[in-house]
């Protein structure tokens, strides 16, 4: 007769509770711990903070009799053939299950920010590129494919998406974020959650909360924002992904929030997340985040105290390896310093999740679905979706001289240190840039065409010449015997060749940008924060040199953040922005340059005019805009939401059902969009809200809806936005709660957040009593294209 916890007809909660009641303290604590096999023996640079300082060699024989909660990065720690990796994970899981008396396997987790984090797996565009697509449906499809590939080889949990709203793009992890607007981040992130979890993978929301608002945009630096900014900008994406997306896991952030580290913040992890929002999933620590409480935040003096603070706050699982939730916590519980009930609550959540994953079922098998077949992690269907995402994410910033599309038979100088570099397509959370750089003899494992190679394929009748022009951005080792003089001569020689190549061409395509890395080993990525927003290295001087030739220059940026381009405003023939567009990024950029693909990307972050106006995002009240009180002008060169097309559109006949709306009411806003040009194209209609008067200071405008509208030449479509009064709520109550207040509103139909791009303004007045709302409010303005 099976025990109740083995009965698949019972609710997961009941099964988990029955199993918990049979476990010893050591067995319960084992479910709260992870191990990171192989990481302690890697000889390269750290890929996580404190990795080689506190990560110790794992003795599975000692751990396994009590069980194991999580296995960390079985594919993303070192290069492994996908089939061999799946087989090795299956052997480890069989060992874990056989080692404890209940036969419980571990949850295996992996990174999946730009695809399954494994050698040979498809590399999709980075999240900032997701934001540029304004296409949740396509992002959700990519996540579904990513999740299916992970599940097929035995992975259960993915450490994505990142829902940090960009507050200062100097932050190195800007590339991992979706954008500077909470609505865009929330809707795109929610689509990713749904896609990943539809494939049976637990999505993990990162980083809860405030991580991107650090002082000086420095990684791990303190965060001192107020409760209204937290409620209005930082938290809404998490609310959306939990309320609408059903995310099953949350990862706490490294930062402190007004002096309280997130890992020890009970108000954040328990009172808000669980008690107010009703979250029932697991809270996992960011890597070594519990040890941070002792070693960096210094709010604990021992691992035991760090464990107590985290457990009391609401952290369930210590990742990536066990240190605090092991013997130190066990001894604290037995000494009466920590209630065992806290351990029980966390272990119950972990066991319930394992039950939901099928890991407690009697017929569970360690052999994943992909075996024994050949494992292909980069199949054509995934490359196709990666290509679509990349194409939709490319933003045409400017085309002042109509230099684009490029003529099919012309002389083109392709210049720049990133023009023929596959790494230019890849963010720091891709296997080649995260792990592969520590294995220089390792093949990429995937085909990543460069911009130069893609242009040659795209424009076979064009005469292409190439020159690097300058050294790649980021730190680089000097060749043996090099001196300062020889380096200067080499730089001058590169620059002179680039100038000659450009002068002899009809048009020059300058491919510049970032090189991703970790902890200062790149110009973008985790721990690669920027002191300013000038183009890295010698690239600005190279661009000046190219412009001096008189040849029209088309700037192509492959970056992880926006850079200040005002210095070249009006001088460039055209400018194109791509944010680490993944393995199909080269062909996508080339297709936009040739005109085969009509660009439809829109900026998820503003492009600054100068670096002096930073930090800045478009979500500013009147005093945050240009004014007479300061000589510093923060106005961007290109606003959030900006993006051009090779065709033209008209926006006609906006109307709503009513000019007045109750504070709990709903109305439909309709707009006709027509392609008035000669090419097929996609317009991105953006809906912004302006509140002339409010109880607290409000942004002049903020995004509340958007729709992609694909149209053939001469074709039209009607866009319907369903606007609910909840979308006008803001933190205005004395206790910090959200309210919907009566009064005038303006619904702005716009091509970007800039005033000049507002196509129509529809006035609307809210009437009736002021309402208090919470996380159950309407979070999304649905859009239909008819």
TrEMBL record:
Keyword terms: Carbohydrate metabolism, Glycosidase, Hydrolase
Protein name per UniProt: Glycoside hydrolase family 3 N-terminal domain-containing protein
Family matches, as InterPro entries: Cellulose_deg_GH3 (IPR050288), Fn3-like (IPR026891), GH (IPR017853), Glyco_hydro_3_AS (IPR019800), Glyco_hydro_3_C (IPR002772), Glyco_hydro_3_C_sf (IPR036881), Glyco_hydro_3_N (IPR001764), Glyco_hydro_3_N_sf (IPR036962)
GO molecular function (one): hydrolase activity
Pfam families: Fn3-like (PF14310), Glyco_hydro_3 (PF00933), Glyco_hydro_3_C (PF01915)
UniProt record similarity statement: Belongs to the glycosyl hydrolase 3 family.
PANTHER family: BETA-GLUCOSIDASE
Domain Fibronectin type III-like: 683-753
């Amino acid at each position: 007769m099976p025990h109740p916890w083995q009965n698949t007809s019972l609710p997961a909660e009941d099964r988990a509770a029955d199993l918990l009641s049979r476990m010893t303290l050591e067995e319960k604590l084992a479910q709260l711990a992870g191990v990171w096999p192989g990481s302690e023996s890697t000889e390269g640079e750290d890929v996580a903070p404190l990795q080689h300082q506190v990560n110790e060699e794992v003795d599975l024989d000692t751990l396994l009799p009590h069980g194991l909660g999580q296995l960390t990065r079985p594919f993303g720690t070192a290069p492994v053939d996908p089939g061999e990796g799946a087989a090795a994970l299956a052997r480890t899981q069989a060992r874990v299950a056989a080692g404890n008396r209940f036969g419980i396997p571990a949850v295996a987790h992996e990174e999946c920010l730009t695809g399954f984090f494994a050698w040979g797996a498809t590399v999709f565009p980075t999240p900032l590129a997701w934001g540029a697509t304004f296409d949740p449906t396509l992002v959700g499809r990519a996540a579904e494919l990513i999740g299916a590939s992970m599940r097929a080889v035995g992975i259960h949990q993915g450490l994505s998406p990142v829902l940090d709203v960009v507050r200062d793009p100097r932050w190195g992890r800007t590339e991992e974020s979706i954008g500077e607007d909470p609505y865009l981040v929330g809707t795109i992130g929610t689509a990713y959650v749904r896609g990943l979890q539809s494939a049976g993978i637990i999505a993990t929301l990162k980083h809860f909360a405030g991580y991107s608002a650090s002082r000086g945009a420095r990684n791990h630096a303190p965060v001192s924002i107020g409760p209204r900014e937290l409620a209005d900008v930082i938290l809404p994406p998490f609310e959306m992904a939990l309320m609408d997306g059903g995310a099953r896991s949350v990862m706490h952030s490294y930062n402190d929030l007004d002096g309280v580290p997130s890992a020890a913040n009970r108000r954040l992890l328990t009172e808000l997340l669980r008690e107010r929002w009703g979250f029932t999933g697991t809270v996992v620590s960011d890597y070594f985040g519990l040890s941070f409480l002792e070693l960096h935040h210094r709010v604990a003096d021992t691992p035991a105290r760090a464990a107590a603070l985290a457990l009391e706050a609401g952290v369930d699982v210590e990742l990536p390896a066990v240190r605090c939730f092991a013997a130190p916590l066990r001894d604290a519980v037995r000494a009466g310093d920590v209630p065992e009930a806290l351990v029980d609550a966390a272990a119950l959540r972990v066991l319930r999740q394992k039950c939901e994953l099928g890991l407690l079922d009697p017929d569970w098998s360690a052999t994943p679905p992909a075996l024994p077949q050949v494992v292909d992690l980069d199949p054509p269907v995934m490359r196709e979706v990666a290509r679509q995402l990349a194409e939709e994410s490319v933003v045409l910033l400017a085309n002042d001289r109509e230099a684009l599309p490029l003529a099919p038979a012309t002389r083109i100088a392709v210049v720049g240190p990133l023009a023929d570099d596959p790494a230019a397509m890849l963010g720091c959370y891709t296997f080649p840039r995260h792990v592969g750089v520590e294995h220089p003899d390792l093949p990429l494992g995937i085909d990543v065409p460069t911009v130069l190679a893609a242009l040659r394929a795209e424009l076979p009748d064009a005469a292409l010449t190439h020159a690097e022009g300058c050294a790649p951005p980021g730190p680089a080792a000097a060749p043996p015997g090099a001196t300062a003089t020889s380096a200067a001569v080499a730089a001058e020689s590169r620059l002179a060749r680039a100038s000659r190549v450009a002068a002899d061409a009809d048009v020059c395509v300058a491919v510049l940008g970032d090189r991703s890395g970790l902890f200062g080993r790149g110009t973008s990525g985790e721990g690669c924060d920027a002191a300013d927003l000038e183009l890295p290295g010698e690239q600005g001087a190279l661009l000046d040199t190219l412009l001096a030739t008189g040849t029209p220059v088309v700037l192509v940026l492959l970056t992880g953040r926006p850079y200040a381009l005002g210095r070249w405003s009006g001088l460039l023939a055209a400018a194109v922005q791509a944010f680490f567009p993944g393995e199909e990024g080269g062909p996508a950029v080339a297709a936009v340059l040739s005109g085969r693909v009509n660009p439809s990307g829109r900026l998820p972050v503003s492009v600054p005019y100068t670096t002096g106006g930073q930090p800045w995002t478009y979500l500013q009240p009147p005093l945050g805009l240009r004014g007479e009180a300061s000589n510093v002008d923060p106005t961007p060169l290109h606003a959030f939401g900006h993006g051009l097309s090779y065709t033209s559109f008209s926006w006609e006949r906006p109307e709503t059902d009513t000019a007045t709306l109750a504070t709990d009411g709903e109305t439909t806003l309709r707009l006709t969009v027509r392609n008035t040009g000669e090419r097929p194209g996609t317009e991105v209609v953006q809906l912004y809200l302006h509140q002339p008067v409010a109880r607290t200071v409000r942004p002049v405008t903020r995004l509340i809806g958007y729709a992609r509208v694909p149209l053939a030449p001469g074709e039209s479509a009607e866009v319907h936005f369903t606007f609910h009064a909840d979308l006008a709520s803001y933190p205005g109550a004395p206790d910090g709660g959200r309210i919907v207040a009566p009064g005038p509103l303006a619904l702005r139909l716009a091509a970007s957040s800039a005033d000049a791009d507002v196509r129509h303004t529809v006035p609307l007045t809210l009437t009736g009593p002021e309402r208090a709302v919470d996380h159950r409010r309407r979070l999304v303005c649905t859009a239909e294209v008819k």
